[in-house]
């Protein structure tokens, strides 16, 4: 009887141990291409934030992250394409310029701000921006990794490719610039005067190592 | 032949009771978080099916055992202790079966809703007093006595008959539905979606009443939902009315502390807020009517081996049979001012996203073209947040929604609000959704402890994420009292019956 009681208690103890040590840990998975970076230039783990830039490890680029805080990086602002005399000045809409906005304004303000420790912000090339296109993960979302590039709109985003011959309904305007449409995931040609969105890019000038990534999250997103 | 039959019945009873208890306790984790302590021992996934199947088997075994003992008499001799324990076992298992069946049929009076759970706990006590004491008394011989049988002696006919009867009972129980008669109205009748239900057509419509249970914050977790439905050729109107003594419009409010702004919460970090949340109401629609919210309930912390676990340990909704289930989610703060219910759906498992901490499996929103409410914080942290906007001083009236016009971008220099100030966390960037997500118009009105919700949708939309409204459509309803996910529920589906 004592032996049977002992065996029973042993089974109960083993069951308790199993229950105590079999809890499922919930950990983030590292994105194969992107890393979040703070406005001060520090790399974050996937669930940490807030982040102001995304490090594109595949192309060694740093992308500006749009916001909805009415700062100069707000995703609702639009810009006409303009670069040192080429294009159309001040045909977009934003709140941070006394006049209206163009692409040069955003580049100027972002470099002055040294966003994420960089002062070489520019418009992306067609190849760079088109490389962000990917099918939406959820219905109605834009063609981009929306968990990293939040506040991207389903609309046109300027590239640096200018002096493009315009076709069809825009033919009379002769030249414009290339843009990527994240609603359809296609590259289009638009007149300089169009009010389109902008996501800036910069060439990475510092090294981001995985040792910078925190293994424990202190902040979370919903 | 009597002994092999006894061994077969006893072995099947062990199987059925064990499966019933384990699946039942998993279902109970939804409302009794302390059971999560032993969650690793419980099955996960579609446990409602397991529970109904094991209960069906137990019913068949009980019926046959009654017949068997009446005809054959007792075949085991027990001492006085085991006689008493066995009587206790018969009693609690009978109560458990009857209360479970009553719960399944949505027939249990409110005051007896917990009887099934407590009789299940009593069954565990019975198992300890019965099985454990036998094992202590006889050791391994106890197993030989009740399990071993010559293969030639196995009553295969009885085994097959029990299996077939169990399958038939399971099928019959699974196909039982309630019926909601949808009254016809003319296309010329104007129905105003205002939550007041003062059109004469509502007064004339038949009322269907269903008890929903196991929701957080309701009295004993229970609220009775009164449902009416009207339809012209193009649209169906629903009227839902349910008791909720507290009108909860404080949705994760921000409060100013000496350390800055914080989100008032009690469970939000685990996505299971149960105190500082708006009231809500949900309607699920499907073209089939099965148990377990039409097979969309997958309980447990990690019911899908190749997908992320959930934070609250309760489970997910997903639709893995290739069909979409529609889900209308009315929210007293976030969508009521838009005169909308959030048009959502339950579909296949979504691809997990590296940057998102909360994985929602098959529960997703329909797409929208534009329009949104956003949370009024730059970045959520349980410790401190920075609001996106502050109300202009003349507009600060503690309203449940912070309007765009009437607020200004946050600046620390303008943040002169005293400690203890409360602020809405729901910021409207536009008046309403546009597109697929805005297919369901809805308006709720709270008065004297009752919410009244009027809701309308086209019978047939063009969205692949919507379910058509017709005679084959089943609906399920759930009320939320100041809770994020802890909603009330009922077992059997409600089938729509149109008379047009």
TrEMBL record, chain B:
| Molecular function GO terms recorded | heme binding; metal ion binding
InterPro entries on file: Cyt-c552/DMSO_Rdtase_haem-bd
Q: Does the keyword Phosphoprotein apply?
A: no
Q: Which spans are transmembrane here?
A: 48-67, 87-105, 117-136, 156-176
What organism is recorded for this protein? Pseudoalteromonas byunsanensis
Sorted alphabetically, the keyword list is: Electron transport, Heme, Iron, Membrane, Metal-binding, Transmembrane, Transmembrane helix, Transport
Query: This chain belongs to which protein, by name?
Result: Cytochrome c-552/DMSO reductase-like haem-binding domain-containing protein
Domain Cytochrome c-552/DMSO reductase-like haem-binding, first and last residues per copy: 199-492
- Pfam families linked to this entry: EB_dh
The uppermost taxa in this organism's lineage are:
Bacteria, Pseudomonadati, Pseudomonadota, Gammaproteobacteria, Alteromonadales
């Amino acid at each position: 009887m004592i032996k049977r009681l002992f065996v029973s208690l042993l089974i109960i103890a083993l069951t308790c141990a199993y229950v105590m040590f079999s809890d499922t840990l919930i950990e983030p998975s590292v994105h194969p291409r992107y890393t979040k970076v703070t406005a001060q230039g520090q790399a974050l783990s996937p669930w940490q934030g807030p982040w102001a830039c995304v490090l594109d490890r595949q192309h060694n680029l740093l992308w500006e992250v749009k916001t909805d805080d009415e700062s100069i990086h707000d995703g609702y602002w639009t810009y006409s394409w303009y670069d040192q005399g080429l294009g159309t000045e001040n045909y977009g809409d934003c709140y941070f310029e006394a006049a209206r906005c163009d692409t040069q304004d955003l580049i100027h303000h972002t470099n002055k701000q040294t966003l994420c420790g960089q002062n070489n912000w520019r418009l992306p090339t067609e190849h760079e921006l088109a490389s962000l296109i990917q099918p939406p993960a959820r219905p109605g979302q834009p063609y981009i990794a929306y968990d990293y590039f939040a506040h991207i709109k389903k609309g046109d985003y300027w590239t640096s490719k200018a002096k493009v011959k315009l076709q069809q309904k825009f033919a009379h305007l002769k030249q414009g610039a290339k843009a990527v449409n994240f609603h359809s995931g296609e590259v289009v040609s638009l007149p300089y005067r169009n009010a389109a969105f902008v996501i800036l890019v910069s060439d990475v000038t510092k090294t981001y190592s995985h040792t910078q990534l925190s293994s424990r999250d202190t902040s979370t997103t919903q | 032949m009597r002994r092999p039959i006894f061994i077969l019945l006893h072995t099947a009873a062990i199987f059925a009771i064990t499966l019933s208890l384990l699946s039942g306790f998993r279902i109970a984790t939804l409302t009794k978080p302390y059971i999560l302590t032993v969650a690793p021992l419980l099955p996960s996934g579609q446990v409602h099916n397991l529970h109904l199947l094991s209960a069906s088997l137990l019913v068949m075994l009980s019926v046959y055992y009654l017949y068997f003992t009446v005809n054959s008499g007792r075949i085991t001799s027990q001492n006085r202790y085991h006689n008493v324990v066995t009587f206790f076992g018969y009693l609690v298992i009978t109560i458990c079966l009857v209360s479970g069946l009553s719960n399944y049929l949505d027939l249990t009076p409110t005051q007896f809703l917990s009887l099934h759970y407590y009789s299940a706990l009593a069954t565990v006590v019975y198992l300890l007093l019965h099985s454990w004491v036998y094992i202590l008394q006889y050791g391994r011989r106890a197993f030989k006595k009740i399990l071993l049988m010559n293969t030639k002696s196995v009553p295969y006919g009885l085994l097959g008959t029990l299996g077939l009867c169990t399958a038939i009972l399971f099928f019959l129980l699974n196909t039982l539905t309630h019926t909601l008669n949808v009254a016809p109205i003319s296309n010329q009748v104007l129905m105003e979606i205002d939550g007041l239900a003062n059109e004469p057509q509502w007064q004339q419509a038949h009322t269907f009443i269903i008890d929903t249970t196991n929701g957080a914050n309701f009295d004993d977790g229970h609220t009775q939902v009164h449902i009416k439905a009207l339809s012209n050729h193009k649209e169906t109107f629903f009227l839902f009315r349910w008791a909720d003594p507290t009108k909860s419009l404080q949705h994760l409010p921000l409060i100013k502390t000496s350390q800055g702004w914080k989100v008032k919460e009690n469970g939000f970090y685990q996505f299971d807020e149960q105190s500082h949340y708006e009231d809500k109401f949900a309607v699920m629609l499907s073209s089939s009517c099965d148990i377990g919210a039409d097979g969309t309930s997958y309980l447990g912390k990690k019911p899908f081996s190749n997908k992320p676990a959930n934070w609250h340990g309760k489970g997910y909704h997903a639709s893995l049979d290739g069909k979409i289930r529609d889900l209308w989610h009315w929210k007293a703060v976030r969508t009521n001012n838009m005169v909308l219910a959030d048009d959502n759906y339950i579909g296949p498992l979504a691809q997990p996203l590296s940057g998102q901490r909360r994985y929602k499996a098959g529960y997703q929103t329909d797409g929208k073209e534009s329009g949104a409410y956003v949370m009024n914080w730059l970045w959520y942290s349980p410790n401190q947040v920075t609001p996106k906007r502050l109300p202009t001083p003349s507009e600060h009236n503690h309203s449940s929604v912070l309007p765009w016009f009437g607020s200004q971008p946050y600046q620390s220099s303008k943040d002169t609000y005293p400690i203890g100030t409360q602020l809405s966390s729901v910021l409207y960037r536009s008046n309403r959704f546009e597109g697929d997500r805005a297919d369901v118009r809805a308006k709720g009105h709270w008065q004297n402890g009752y919410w009244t919700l009027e809701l309308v949708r086209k019978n047939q939309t063009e969205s692949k994420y919507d379910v058509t409204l017709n005679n084959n459509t089943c609906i399920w309803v759930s009320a939320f009292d100041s809770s994020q996910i802890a909603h009330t529920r009922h077992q059997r589906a409600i089938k729509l019956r149109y008379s047009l």
